[in-house]
Design goal:
This protein has 215 residues and is an alpha/beta fold. It contains 6 helices and 11 strands. The model has no long low-confidence stretch (mean pLDDT 97). Bound molecules: NADP nicotinamide-adenine-dinucleotide phosphate. NADP nicotinamide-adenine-dinucleotide phosphate (NAP) binds at residues 7, 9-13, 32-33, 51-53, 69-73, 84-85, 107, 109, 149, 151-152.
Length: 215
Amino acid sequence: MNVLVIGANGQIGKRLVHQLKESNHGPVAMVRKEEQVDQFKENGIDTVLGDLEDDFTHAFEDIDAVVFSAGSGGHTPKSQTKVIDRDGAIKAIDEAEKAGRKRFIMVSALKANRDSETWSEPMEHYYDAKAKADERLRNSDLDYTVLMPGRLTNEEGIGKVELKERIESIDNKTITRDDVATVIVELLDAKQSYKKSLELLQGSTPIKEAISNLN
Ligand SMILES: NC(=O)c1ccc[n+]([C@@H]2O[C@H](COP(=O)([O-])OP(=O)(O)OC[C@H]3O[C@@H](n4cnc5c(N)ncnc54)[C@H](OP(=O)(O)O)[C@@H]3O)[C@@H](O)[C@H]2O)c1
């Protein structure tokens, strides 16, 4: 499957394009700066230049699926969270629809799926932006999966997760970016994950089994 990865230069994005390549998919890394291209090309990974704040329609040519893993990051003004995490994600959904690309995986955040009463500063605006983009995707006709990981870490993946529409006990739990990337690779073809919103944390179930349990 040719997979457009939006946010490919990010910490999940880089892991994801490499894992996609290893699993014989055709990743297309969307990056916003020319100097970010070579690191992918050196590994035989296709790239496309595109900025969520400009027109990136061209990125949707010849692809079968889209993964949105971009984010404004924690060091930008709150207004940028609206521009990227909300409006950039919504533009990506619009573009996928216009181009007739049905499969769309959104990397959201677990707490965006929880009651807004539980949100607090300084994260409130971020969860709100994520939740608005997720809502737009749920109201689309795309074969979407809203994937909602908890707090991300950079440790090595262990390949075992908890992946459910609702995880009851979430306190103090995390998930490695490695394992988030692996879950995305495995979800791409998993029809039982279409039209679902799934919370993701580290757990005790091997990733493939956690995905087949969605049936
Ligand atoms: N941090 C957490 O604990 C946590 C928890 C749950 C979910 N998430 C979500 O997980 C996703 C991935 O996280 P991560 O840690 O991989 O994030 P990251 O390392 O900050 O990567 C985000 C990527 O988005 C790109 N981006 C920003 N603005 C852009 C624009 N205008 N056009 C195109 N690309 C743009 C950045 O590009 P540059 O490299 O050029 O800056 C960067 O590569 C995000 O959506 C985040 O909200 C995070």
